[in-house]
Every structure is written in C-alpha cells, then in structure tokens.
Specification:
Rossmann fold; three-stranded mixed β-sheet; Zinc Finger, Delta Prime, domain 3; five-stranded parallel β-sheet; Helicase, Ruva Protein, domain 3; 10 strands; binds zinc ion; 545 residues; alpha/beta; 4 domains
C-alpha cells in the first residue's frame, strides 16, 4: 500500500529521477510494477499515476513491443559493451514518446564493467532517459548506482492478502474451491502472488470440473497432512524406528518434497515445544507433550535445524533425510552429561569393577549380531568402560507419578507370557522379574519396576545387546511398545525422596568430583540416580545424570 502511494506520488509530482530500483523477493511482481510505472511515464494522457491502458503507448508496453521501452534481462546481458550500447541509445529522444525507458531485470547480475558504463550515463543523465532496475538482491547493486536511484522496496505480501486475492479470482472465474484449500494455496505460495496463482492453476487443471477440496489440494501440493506429521514426530521423539521407516517410505512413494516435509515437521515441533513450555496443549498434541522431556525435545529440534541445512545441500535427499531422522530418533533419551559425570565416577569410585554373571555373558556373546559390540568374556573382567558408557545411556528411563502408575495394567496376560519367556531365555533376569512389578501403560509400553536388590540385573540390562534381547522377547509375546525400566520398591518414588534429591543435588554441586565438571561444562545437576548398592557402595553414593 505504502509502495503504491510512493509510486503515485512520484508520478503525480512529475519529478522524474534518471533511475528507479524495484527490489523484492522472486515473484512479488517487480517487473509488473515497473511496467505500470513505465506506462504512467509515457501515457498519452501525460505523466500520470493512472495510466489509461488504452493509448498506443500503454498498449505497446502491455504487449511488450513499445519502441520507447526496452526490456533487458540482466542475467544474460551482462557485458560492458551491452551497457555502453544502452547508454548510446539513451541519448536519443524517442520519436513519439516522452521517455526512453530501460527496464533491466535481475540487474544485480550485471558485470562490474557494465555497471561502470551505466554509471557514466547516470552521472550525466540524458533528460528523457529513465532506467528501471528490478532485482531480488538490491545489496549487490553498487553504491554509486544505488545512490543515484530512487528505491522502491516491494514488501512480501501477507498470506491473508494473497488469500483474499485468490478468493476474488476464484469467485470471478467460478472456480469451485474450498476455503481451506484456498488458504493452503496462499500459504504454499510463501508470499509470492505469482507462485500462488501458478499453484491455483495447477489445481484447477487437476480437478477438472470437480470441486477442489483441502484433501485434494494437499495431495497435489505434496503437503504432508497433519496426521502424518504427528505420527512422524511421535516416531522420532519416542525412538520408534519401525514406524519412522514406514512413514518415510510412504513419503517417498508419494513423491513428497523432503525439504517441505522437514520444514512442516519442525513447525510441528515448535508447537510441541510451546505446549511443553506453557504447560498446555491441544488434544492432538497433549500425549506427545506429556511424554517427551524438554531436553529431548530441544535436542531433537536443534538437530533438525542442521538436518534441514544438510538436506538442502544434498543431491540424494532421500538418503540424507533417512539418515538424519534416524540419527535423531536413535538418540538416547537421557541427558548427555550423564556420560561425562560417569567418567569421573568411574575413575575414582571404588565400585567401578562390577562382576557380571558369567553364564549369561557366554550366551549373549553367541547372540551378538555383529562384531561391532565386542564383549570381553571373562567372568572376572568387567566390560570395557567406554562401551559401557556408550550403551548404558540408551535405556529409556522415565519417571512417572503414582496416579499414572496406578492406572497401568498389571493383569495383562502378555505380562505372564513375557515373564515366562524371559525366565526361559535369561533365567537370572527372569528371577529378578519375579520380584518386580510389571505393568503395561495405555500406550502399550511395558514398565518394569525393579527392586533395589536387583542392582546387578539392572546393570546387566543396561547393556545394549541385553536390553535388545529383552525387547525381542517382549515383541514376541505381543508387547509392541517400549520397555521402561524403573526403580523403587513398588516403582513409586514418594515425595520424601524428591526432597532428599534436592538436598543431594546441592551437595553434588560442591563435591570436588562433580563440581569441576559442572563448572567446566556450564552444567546443572539434573537428576541423581541411585545405584542402590547394598554392601559395596557404603550406601550414600549416588550416580549423577
Ligand atoms: Zn495511456
């Protein structure tokens, strides 16, 4: 609006500059505006903000065959010679028209020499010559040219403006289209009227005589629908690889744009973050918002930003998208400082050498799928520390409140079958599970509340391949969700312990072993996880996360 006023004022004042710059994003209508401006300059009715569109000059400009106006593509005519030629032509007054107008599109593409040639003309402008420069990158125009030009900045039009314009058009041309579909088109045009119109055209020719619905529009535009996005977000945040790969397959089969998908996914993540931050969420998001931790969410979003960058630069977008999302989805859902603090502890705590049970280890060795996770099989030797560190963090560990836990289903027949299968395949673990409480939550996840006396089994299960084995058994008996190991006699940590924990966190801030790390990494004590060592540990040593 402001721009239109500026244009009109310029024309109404009849004070004409030798050069005008029209800048703005691609498709915003720079050359269109420049042409209207040219009409206003040369209209037979005089320099006017309202060109008549009927006189020969106006009609010639509309049809691009005006002798007084030359349109030059700056991207292909970049040489100094061509610019000099223009400068020569500029000296001649047109026979009929008021001004000789040069419209140079993509002017920033001109060579330096060409700009210099133009500059000479602009320094001593022939009175009847007007240069109109259209560009998406005004900062690339040399200062010397810019300072001699009047600059019109074309602002991105809002989605709402595009929407109402499209609505007007579809009413005028009796296009049968849903309001939601129109909004989708407007959003998809990303501020470009031209792109929006092209999209609308595409939809019209696709729909034929049918009404264009939102579903049809999103299918044609490759907009991944909401449900699909929600499923993807869940799969990524809750480490569900199988679903994730399923969804990605669908995405590529449909031929959707991976970049667009990732962008939409990130927008959804922001919604989830907002829900998490303010503590409320729409019904469709509430489940994710409750289950995901702030740390996991922020980290996933961080990684997505760099993924988007990598995706943009890659030639094989399918591979990159799969790779990036797999990486994010396989992140351990535990705060990474865990590893660091653990390293300190390992180095100075007396109970860092733990005895694993020998019989189980031998079996596990045979079950290993690859040599990557080599295990040192020796009843006396503990597993290499570094391996331990990299795997232990993979076990999802969740806190739940009492009420929630009460609602879990502990009578599910699958649990009995699971226990039986575990006893058969991993007798020691099975034995420990006999003393534990197992239940299945409404999402199908299996919660195992380990007793504190089962520390050795816990430790054993914290190793990736052992945990994997457990998951295999679970899925064999029909438990589709994740396995969540929890600590506590009954799985319920009371308020008392919370208080204790706060005290302990403060203590850890001052302990030399941890305080150095906390300050070195600018960290926080997030959570203290008790190892519940009975005899060896002396009782009051905990483990930090
Ligand atoms: Zn006219």
């Amino acid at each position: 609006e402001a721009l239109v006023r500026a244009l009109k004022n310029t024309l109404a004042s009849k004070k004409i500059h030798p050069a005008y710059i029209f800048s703005g994003i691609r498709g915003i209508g720079k050359t269109t505006v420049a042409r209207i401006f040219a009409k206003g300059l040369n209209c037979e009715s005089g320099i006017t903000p309202k060109p008549c569109n009927k006189c020969s000059s106006c009609r010639e400009i509309t049809g691009s065959y005006s002798l007084a106006m030359m349109e030059i593509d700056g991207a292909t005519h970049t040489s100094a010679d061509e610019a000099r030629l223009l400068a020569d032509i500029a000296k001649y007054t047109p026979a009929r028209d008021r001004f000789r107008i040069f419209l140079i599109d993509e002017v920033h593409m001109l060579s330096k020499a060409a700009f210099n040639a133009l500059l000479k003309t602009l320094e001593e402008p022939p009175p009847q010559a007007v240069f109109l420069f259209a560009t998406t990158e005004p900062h690339k125009i040399p200062e010397t040219i810019d300072s001699r030009s009047y600059h019109f900045r074309l602002k991105r039009i809002t989605e709402e403006m595009i929407y109402s314009y499209l609505k007007g058009i579809s009413e005028k041309e009796s296009i049968a289209i849903d309001d939601e579909a129109l909004r989708l088109v407007a959003r998809y045009g990303e501020g470009s009227m031209r792109d929006s119109l092209t999209i609308l055209d595409r939809l019209v020719s696709y729909a034929g005589l049918d009404k264009i619905t939102e579903n049809m529009a999103s299918a044609v535009l490759g907009v991944v629908n909401r449900d699909f996005l929600l499923k993807s977000a869940r799969a990524i945040l809750f480490n569900d690889m199988k679903t994730l790969y399923n969804l990605l397959n669908q995405l590529f089969e449909r031929g959707d744009d991976p970049e667009r998908f990732l962008a939409d996914l990130m927008a959804l993540m922001r919604e989830i973050l907002r829900g998490k931050a303010i503590g409320e969420a729409s019904e469709e998001l509430s489940q994710i918002v409750t289950k995901v931790s702030m740390e996991d969410l922020l980290r996933a979003m961080d990684l997505m930003v760099s993924s988007a960058q990598r995706l943009k630069q890659s030639l094989d977008q399918r591979v990159v998208l799969e790779l990036e999302l797999t990486k994010i989805a396989s992140l351990p859902s535990i705060v990474p400082i865990d590893k660091i603090v653990k390293l300190v502890e390992e180095s100075e705590s007396p109970f860092n050498s733990e005895i694993l049970f020998k019989g189980e280890e031998d079996k596990e060795e045979k079950r290993e799928e690859s040599g990557e996770q080599k295990q040192i099989v020796d009843g006396e030797t503990e597993k290499a520390v570094s391996e331990e560190l990299s795997f232990s963090a993979l076990i999802p560990f969740k806190r739940i409140d009492d009420e929630e836990a009460m609602s879990y289903d502990s009578k599910n027949p699958k649990i009995e079958r699971f226990k039986e299968a575990v006893s058969e395949e991993l007798p020691l673990v099975g034995n420990a599970f006999e003393k534990s409480q197992l239940s299945i939550d409404p999402d199908g996840n299996l919660h195992i509340f380990m007793q504190s006396s089962s520390a050795t089994v816990m430790k054993y299960l914290k190793e990736l391949q052992n945990f994997k084995k457990l998951q295999e058994i679970a899925s064999k008996v029909g438990i589709a969700g994740s396995i969540l190991l929890e600590k506590g006699e009954n799985g319920f940590d009371g308020k008392e312990q919370e208080k204790e924990e706060i005290q302990e966190k403060d203590e850890y801030k001052t302990k030399p072993a941890t305080s150095n790390f906390i300050s070195a990494f600018d960290g926080e004590v997030m959570k203290i996880v008790r190892k519940n060592y009975t005899s060896e540990s002396g009782g009051d040593d905990g483990e930090l996360e």
